[in-house]
User: Which sequence fits this backbone?
């Protein structure tokens, strides 16, 4: 009589959202939460308003993630989950994304590229 171990496939990476400790074979199905927060302080808020910028629209990879009045700011760096957040679930442990912020006249105020990684919230302070 042959006795064999049952091969259980799934995600065996403890940093993944779908980690399973009972897995004995990684099948490439792991998903990771990657996140960033955009924010600006009172000084930037004042400068924006002095240039008659009243509202801001935040985009990541051409997708609108939120809007904010220029007069609303953060006194200190916010935690992920607060501020203007971007989150994704990805099979990759690092990803890069293009972002831009437009004012009420559709003029780009900020733009750049973010590189996100597992276990870290990227904090992007916008200065003006």
Assistant:
């Amino acid at each position: 009589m042959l006795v064999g171990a049952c091969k259980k496939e799934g995600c065996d990476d403890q940093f993944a959202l779908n980690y399973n400790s009972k897995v004995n074979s990684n099948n490439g199905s792991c998903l990771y939460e990657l996140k960033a927060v955009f924010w600006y302080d009172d000084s930037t808020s004042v400068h924006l308003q002095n240039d008659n910028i009243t509202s801001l629209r935040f985009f990541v990879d051409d997708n609108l993630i939120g809007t904010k009045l220029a007069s609303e700011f953060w006194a200190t760096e916010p935690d992920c989950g607060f501020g203007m957040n971007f989150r994704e679930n990805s099979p990759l442990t690092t990803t890069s994304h293009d972002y831009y912020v437009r004012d009420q006249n559709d003029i780009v105020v900020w733009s750049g590229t973010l590189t996100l990684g597992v276990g870290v919230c990227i904090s992007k302070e916008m200065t003006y």
About this structure: The chain has a mean pLDDT of 91.
